[in-house]
Amino acid sequence: MRRRHAAALVTVAAVLLGGCTSAQDHAKDDPAAPRPGTLRVLASSELSDMTAVLDRVRKDTGITLRPTYMGTLDAVDLLARGGADGRYDALWLSSDDYLRLRPDAARKVVSETPVMSSPVAVGVRPATVKALGWQPDQVTWGQVEQAVQEGRLTYGMTDPARSNSGFATLVSVASALSGAQSALTDADVTKATPRLKEFFQGQKLTSGSSGWLATAYKRRGTVDALLNYESVLKGIPGLTVIRPRDGVVTADYPLSSLAASDARTREEVRRVTDDLRTDAVQKLITDTTHRRPVVASVAPAAGLDTTRRRELPFPGSRSVADGLVHAYENELRRPSRTVYVLDTSGSMAGERLTALKRALTGLTGDFRDREEVTLLSFSTGVKSVRTEVVDPKDPQAGLTAIRRDTDALSAAGGTAIYTSLEKAYDRLGDGKDTFTSIVLMTDGENNAGAGAGDFDGFYRSLTGTGRDTPVFPILFGDSSRTELQHIADLTGGRLFDGRSGSLDGAFEEIRGYQ
Q1: Exposure pattern of 392-414 as b/e (b: 16+ CB <10 Å)?
Q2: CATH topology of domain 118-250+309-329
């Protein structure tokens, strides 16, 4: 869907495998190793809220589910490229709709049994609902678009190129605004593009995961609404959750066996699936996760609207799905402005600097049209600052310049992390019409320039765009987890681990947040 590299995706999987969560702690063991009575599951990231359910399944069946969490679309790419072969026994995505458009991935799945469901919805602040004069059960996507045009509604959503909640939202909006009466076609997307451009002017917050989106929404308080699955929105206090009456796309969370698994493993998947669909577990699912049961004898949890809504069809071809995401990334959404704060101190000499250059060079295949990229290299102080823009009229010129700037990086000196971060914030401008972020990569601890306390005071003095710009630090080499986690927590960012696999995967994963 975007210009990814197979090696980067495999690295992402390795990074995520090292941090997977399950009913039991396997952090000290090889997470890919098969174990009797354990199913290794490649799962959508939003299923991390299913801990209580997984514990119940283990008690009922004696089978432990050991999930590795990943964005749904990235998981499909990994499956298609063979990166999941031999490492997983089952697949549990929010939806297999996109997978079905990928024959190279679909042939690796031999069963699909829906476990629960959750439709796309709009979560809006009650004060905004009142100001707009909306009746929640009567709102349409057209009314949402009108509110955006009038400057009365801003929102956040996840990245459709990574997250199925973002992709399902994009399909829902495009289908409704194009007036498509069946599965979206290329002509429908073209027809809807002018309205979609206006609609996405209201997006002020983006994310690679639903969890971080919810956290950023509560922290910043700068948008009026979130577009996501109903189950996610129901978990955020103080939102009025609206299912637009002109239709939405619904996730059905099928648990699927993989074709490469043996008969014993498939039988265990069947046993787990049967248990998940029992009345008792279905009730536990809807009560604890706000998802809807798929068993008719179990009522949805209190507060879930049972009014019927039109189910919008999924695109019928991969070309339409990919074209829709490409349009979103390069035309419809606000462009990104990112400052990469790169440690080029003496300790980065040799293989570490080579790894950094390799990761950044590979990442150029993923930069979007209109994106502004600044490479700020530092050691004892800021050494160089280079800013390039990927101009849609000649994108290769910008990408070539970024590669040239990357190749020019050299290692020497100390490590002035906080001074360099302050300089990065000074480079952001007002950020009014962009998604702004800072990526920090360091292989050591701060030993020059401003200290942690100085930076804390600097950050707290920021206002507007500066205060809302997160730092995404990457653990690498001998960097301090405590130091970098504090920076992420202070600025509302997220810490990424470049030590479990390589820098390629960490840089690639951050893309969903830019």
Answers
A1: eeebeebbebbbebbeebebebb
A2: D-Maltodextrin-Binding Protein; domain 2 (3.40.190)
Give the C-alpha separation, 250 to 121, whole Å: 9
pLDDT for 37-94, tens place per residue?
899 999 998 899 999 999 999 999 999 999 999 888 889 989 999 999 999 999 999 9
How many whole angstroms separate alpha carbon 166 and alpha carbon 210?
9
What are the strands, taking DSSP E only, across 201-307? 203-207, 225-229, 240-242, 250-251, 254-257, 292-293
pTM for the whole structure: 0.87
Domains in the chain: boundaries: 6-116+253-292, 118-250+309-329, 334-513
DSSP of 318-339: HHHHHHHHHHIIIIISPPEEEE
Return the closest-CA partner of residue 338 out of 451, 243, 425: 425
State the amino acid at position 334 in one-letter form: R
Give yes or no for a contact between 468 and 459, defined as CB atoms under 8 angstroms apart: no
Residues 138-160 pLDDT 10s: 999 999 999 999 999 999 999 99
* φ, ψ dihedrals at 255, nearest 5°: -90, 125
